[in-house]
């Protein structure tokens, strides 16, 4: 084990899988020579010439080419500069990549990974700061990953690159510089569709994704100071959702708060809350609560930004209300 950043963990995964799989390619804007918007692909072009492709500013062509490469050998990685721009290539993702295995009766494999930064950071406003995971979780045939730690980022990316299904791989902008312990093993993988209990607790459960997991852990510390024991679950993937882990926690704590950074309306948090209500209603001592962004475009003004995302204080306040 050694400590590296989230960015370094992703870069290691790409380097190791490029070396392991000679047909693997990467395509995206600024991946040569800059290494992509957040530098994850830095140096790949020197190590693997003719397998890293600089694209024009055309998300549809990026995903289209990567999909073709995946279908004819693969795996293929498409890097989309910001996840907001995935709206420009929805046909290639939703109508093509997600459907091909089903429409060919499983005869075609689609080892396609679409990597993209998502979520908030300072001052980037409405067209660069969205969390659109619920859009893709809604589509059968897609897997949707949202790793939180460097270890999971590396292991889940390697797992996605060794699979046969298209994976939307969301990387939170504010996690790239965070550090964590990562195994030295080049075969370190993390299965998709398995949530992780990152902190055990008895009184209530907080279910979160991405950056919100870190905030949930901070909230749990504040709650512990008030003798409230919070269990924190990192979903890690939102398609598929690990219902077994969620239900086991619900049956133990009997209270649930679901937090996502995305707009709360029609969100992953809403889906989880509804399913718990339908399938584990008798286990609940209070209604399932949700936190997310308000139904508004993301602002760039610092004061308004703070109001646009779930905060640690919001989580603590909501949990105290649930306990009372």
Commentary on this structure:
The N and C termini lie far apart (42 Å). With 324 residues, the protein is of the alpha/beta class. The protein contains 12 helices and 14 strands. It has 2 domains: 2-182, Rossmann fold, CATH 3.40.50.970; 196-323, 3-Layer(aba) Sandwich (Rossmann fold). Helix 7 (150-161) links the parallel strand 6 and strand 7 (167-172). Helix 3 (59-71) packs parallel to helix 4 (90-97) and helix 8 (211-224) crosses helix 12 (312-323). The protein has helices spanning 6-20, 44-47, 59-71, 90-97, 100-103, 133-137, 150-161, 211-224, 243-253, 268-279, 302-307, 312-323, and strands at 2-5, 25-28, 52-54, 76-79, 112-118, 143-145, 167-172, 179-182, 196-199, 204-208, 230-234, 237-239, 256-263, 289-293. The strands form 3 sheets. The protein has a 7-stranded mixed sheet with strand order 3-2-4-5-7-6-12, sandwiched between helices.
List the helices and strands and how they pair.
Layout: E1 2-5, H1 6-20, E2 25-28, H2 44-47, E3 52-54, H3 59-71, E4 76-79, H4 90-97, H5 100-103, E5 112-118, H6 133-137, E6 143-145, H7 150-161, E7 167-172, E8 179-182, E9 196-199, E10 204-208, H8 211-224, E11 230-234, E12 237-239, H9 243-253, E13 256-263, H10 268-279, E14 289-293, H11 302-307, H12 312-323
Parallel strand pairs: 2-3, 2-4, 4-5, 5-7, 6-7, 10-11, 10-13, 13-14
Antiparallel strand pairs: 1-8, 6-12, 9-11
Helix pairs in contact: 1-7, 3-4, 8-12
């Amino acid at each position: 084990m050694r400590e590296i950043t989230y960015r370094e963990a992703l870069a290691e995964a790409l380097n190791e899988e490029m070396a392991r799989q000679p047909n693997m390619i990467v395509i995206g804007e600024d991946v040569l020579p800059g290494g992509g918007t957040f530098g994850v692909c830095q140096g790949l072009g020197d190590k693997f010439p003719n397998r890293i492709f600089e694209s024009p500013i055309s998300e549809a062509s990026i995903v289209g080419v990567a999909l073709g490469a995946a279908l004819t050998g693969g795996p293929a990685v498409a890097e989309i500069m910001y996840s907001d721009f995935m709206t420009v290539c929805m046909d290639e993702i939703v109508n093509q990549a997600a459907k091909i295995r089903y429409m060919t009766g499983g005869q075609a494999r689609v080892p396609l990974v679409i990597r993209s930064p998502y979520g908030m950071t300072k001052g980037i406003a409405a067209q660069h700061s969205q969390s659109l995971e619920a859009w893709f979780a809604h589509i059968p045939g897609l897997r949707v990953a949202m790793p939180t730690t460097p270890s999971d980022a590396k292991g889940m990316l390697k797992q996605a690159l060794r699979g046969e299904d298209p994976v939307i791989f969301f990387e939170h902008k504010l996690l790239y510089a965070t550090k964590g312990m990562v195994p030295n093993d080049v075969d370190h993988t993390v299965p998709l569709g398995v949530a992780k209990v990152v902190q055990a607790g008895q009184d209530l459960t907080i279910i979160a994704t991405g950056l919100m997991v870190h905030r949930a852990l901070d909230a749990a510390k504040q709650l512990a100071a008030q003798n409230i024991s919070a269990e924190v679950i990192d979903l890690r993937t939102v398609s598929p959702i690990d219902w077994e882990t969620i239900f086991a926690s619900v049956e133990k704590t009997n209270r649930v708060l679901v937090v996502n950074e995305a707009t709360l309306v029609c969100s992953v948090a809403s889906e989880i809350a509804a399913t718990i209500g339908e399938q584990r209603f008798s286990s609940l001592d209070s209604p399932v609560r949700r936190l997310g962004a308000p139904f508004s475009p993301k602002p760039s003004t610092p004061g308004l930004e703070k109001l646009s995302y779930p905060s640690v204080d919001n989580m603590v306040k909501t949990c105290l209300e649930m306990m009372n």
